[in-house]
Amino acid sequence: MSNIHGIGSFRDNAPSAGGGPQQGAGGYRGAAGYPQGGGGFSQMVDEGEIPAGHISLLKVGGGAFPDLCDLFCPRFRILCFTTFISVVQVIMLIVCMIVGATMFNGAFVKGNDLGGPGPQTFLFMGAKYLPYIQAGQVYRFVTPIFLHGGILHLASNLFFQCRIGFIFELRWGLANYIAVYFLTGIGATYFSCLLSPASISVGASGALFGLIGADLAYLIMNWRALPNSEKYQELCIVLCILLINFLFGMTGGGDGNIDNSAHFGGLVFGFLIGFALTNLLQAEDPMTTKWRIGGW
């Protein structure tokens, strides 16, 4: 989620307030995809087998050089939620630019380095703004998910979303994935209202951080079921994503328009609800059952 550039002075401008894969019955798939029986957790980890129900974030296509689809949107499918929400977000940016050009001060304004309209446009379109939410416009907890501050903001979030979204949707199932996406997006807006009440902000990055938080919960619950190479590499990727975004956020993205409170809120909400909504690879394992009960 991003604050609209120039929000440090927005008080002068803003109006006052008035189906995932089925889990196997204890079976595993080896590298060739054939079921493997017996052996328990230790055999699976030793042989590097990936349990049924786990879609790798690391290995997609074959060959030393993956094609562009594998690189930018692995497991891409047209008929899925990730594609749908991405298309909606593109359309909404186009609508915002038309509204900015026809009703406000333009589709591209000088103060918005992200390449988009100004804060008045986003206020009109449903950006998060606490005084309006307190006045009863509670839909603003949800609408920021569909809006982006400009072309650069949308492009960066779409890359993030498509790189992990298709895989997580297959892992967790359609209903759980949608629930995580929107609940963490709402949670991100809530945290932004608490920690950054004066800001006007838009963007799906709070929900995307929620997906990362939920994936951390997924890794914790299924740690003993995943082979070492798979879980450590994925954990490293997730932590690197968080570290890079944390360091980038500390600089304000270079122009002070990063809503770090929304990112933090999405991450926390995603981590908490991930124990309840992500899939268990070994439901009979008593440790994973404890994590699931704790999640609920």
Task: Walk me through what this model shows.
The protein is globular, with a radius of gyration of 21 Å. The protein contains eleven helices and five strands. The chain has 296 residues and is mainly alpha-helical. It has helices at 40-47, 68-72, 81-103, 119-125, 130-134, 151-172, 174-195, 205-221, 228-250, 260-277, 286-295; strands at 2-3, 28-29, 35-36, 50-51, 201-202. Helix 6 (151-172) runs parallel beside helix 8 (205-221), helix 7 (174-195) runs antiparallel to helix 10 and helix 8 runs parallel beside helix 10.
Question: How much helix is in the residues?
Answer: 40-55%
Strand content: under 5%
Number of helices: 11
Question: Which strand order do you get reading across the main beta sheet?
Answer: 3-2-4
What is the number of beta strands? Answer: 5
Overall shape:
globular
Structural class: mainly alpha
Biggest sheet overview:
3 strands, antiparallel
Report, as a whole number of angstroms, the end-to-end distance: 27 Å
Overall pLDDT confidence: 80
Structural key phrases:
296 residues, mainly alpha, two-stranded antiparallel ribbon, 5 strands, 54% helix
Concise synopsis of the structure shown:
The chain has eleven helices and five strands, in the order βββαβααααααβαααα.
